[in-house]
Amino acid sequence: MGARWRTTILMNLASVVERADEQVLPAVYFFVGKSLRATPAQLGTLTFARALVQAISSPLSGILGDAYDRTHIVTFGCLLWGIMTTAIGFSQSLSQAMISCAFNGLGLALVIPCVQSLVADYHPSEARGQAFGLMGLTSSFGGLVGGFFATNVGASQPLGLEGWRFSFHLMAAISLVTAALIHYYASDPRPRCRHRLHALSPKRRPSQRTGCNEKPYLVIMMTPAGVFWQYAKQSPSPGKMAIQAIQTCRDPCLSSQACRARLQMSKLQSPTWKEKPVKLDVKAAEVARKIWDVLRIRTFQIIILQGIVGSLPWQAMLFFTLWLQILGFSSFTASVLIAIFTLGCAIGGFAGGFFGDAASRWAPNTGRILVAQFSVLLSLPLSVLLLKGLPTRGAPSMEAHSKLYGFIIFFFGLMISWCGSNNSAMFADIVPEQSRSTVYAFDRSFEGGVAALASPLVGLVAEKCFGFKGSLAETAEASSAEAMQNADALASSLLACLIVPWFLCLLFYTGLFWHFPRDKRDALRRSMQHGSIDNLSLATAL
Predict the structure, then answer these.
(1) Residue 107 neighbours by CB under 8 Å, 6+ apart
(2) Which has the higher per-residue pLDDT, 436 or 217?
């Protein structure tokens, strides 16, 4: 198996384990609340602590990922979140769990930006929607399995441990195994495809050796397969040179269209045999310049703005399992319904990427935007139907309505999950290759920081505005009428935290129709100037 497929599979595995790790906590909210005697708002603070630290730390992943081997960053992130996940399982109080969740967020922050950057580098522009959609599909299966397992084990005592604690310990073990696999088998494509080009001064290589009257430059190509050289004519611009052609090379990496384009487009300033060491202050200035170049892109700003409000509902939906349990469904039925919802999201994410790729071929500058807006538009009526339009009474038990809930929640997940894969594909189109880790990291940072507020917000709105009463331990012992009142309060809070952000998200997407085409052209021009153009189609971009 080649390095491309091996690394792609392992990056998908990392995203699977990351999503599973994220889903374990909300899947056992009910059992953690009973064990630690916490209210919904207090449980939300656990997710808030993790998401906030994850958001603040995400830029670190981008900076490190653009400077060092990204597989090493992913490995360390998996290792760190694995250790902190098992620490959550040992927690005896809400404050201990909150500290462990916060450090768990640091590990999670290091992983996903580098994973997304690697996936973008390994796939051409016209296939990135499907690549990110497939990653969303596989990671959703991780969330499905993690949530289903944790919810059903939560009430039992395997190996003498409380079920929710056992779930965290098992998740930690899987994370550590994933870290080991990535460390030994994954590879970053940049060391293979970014060849260091050096040129000797014309004085060091006489023109008689090439049989021409012009003084040539000797271009040295240092690749993993060996050192290869090629004479190139001097550029009319003093102090610069252009590679006219690459004739023969035994490195298979150079056979790709992308690598040939890089070499043909490359221009070397002040050719010398040895590179001068780079000072730390120069590196810091380079990092700051790269960050500023990303932050000032208008498309990036708009996608971040819609992502901030668009991520709030996804954090709020972490309470779906708790809502179904309070509504009267058994833990098994609730876990099945959430698994069905996650399956719908997984298929929807892949379908969204597929439709986005098809739409981008039909309308390169607006296709993905239209697909994302259509998904957000459908989410508004579907949210009302799910949370307020389905029966909550009128049968001996809620189990009689499980098939109806299953159908609606599957369709809901199928239609609301098209945006992520298309946003990731658009991000890859608006920045040069060497800045992709940074753009994905800041996306996670800005979106995650505000979206983290949604977890405690759902509980607070339910308690302060809609009349949710008592802790979850008290709710479990309350009468059916009181439990139903709490379920209605939680549903109303969820609806408010879904409808308002998604409506704003729909409006913000509109700005991309003006700015995305221009930023896409600018990114292509910068890529050619830096000699790092990938498999973008000039005709498509222009």
Answers:
(1) 77, 78, 79, 80, 81, 82, 83, 84
(2) 436
**Residues 178-194: what's their mean pLDDT?**
77
pTM: 0.65
CA 421/CA 57 separation, integer angstroms = 22
Question: Which amino acid is present at 448?
Answer: G
Who's near 212: CB < 8 A, 6+ residues apart?
none
Name the DSSP letter for residue 122: T
Residues 416, 196: Cα–Cα separation, whole Å: 45
**Contact status, residue 86 vs residue 169, Cβ threshold 8 Å:** yes
Q: What is the largest CA-CA distance in the chain?
A: 97
Tens digits of residue pLDDT in 313-352: 988 898 898 899 888 888 889 989 998 998 898 899 889 9
Report yes or no: 439 and 526 within 8 Å, Cβ to Cβ: no
pLDDT of residue 444: 67
- Helix ranges, 90-162 (H): 94-121, 128-153
Q: If DSSP codes are grouped into helix, strand and coil, which group holds residue 43? A: helix
Q: State CA 412 to chain mean position distance.
A: 21
Domains and CATH numbers, the chain: 3-190+296-530 (1.20.1250.20), 192-265 (no CATH)
At 130 the pLDDT is 76
Q: What does the block give as tokens for 312?
A: 């709030």
